[in-house]
Amino acid sequence: MKKALKAGIFAALTLASVPVAYAADEEGAWGPFTGGVTLTSDYRFRGISQSDREAAIQGWVQYDHASGFFANIWASNIDFQDSLSYDSSIEVDFTVGYNHAFSDKLSGGIKAVYYWYADADTPPAAPDYDYFEAIATLGYDFGAASVSGELAWSPDFFAETGDAVSIKGGVTVPLMEKFAFMGALSASGNVGHQWIDQSTDYLYYDLGVSAEWEIFVFDVRWVGTDATVAECAGTDWCEDGIVLSVTANLPG
Question: pTM score > 0.90 for this model?
Answer without folding.
Answer: no
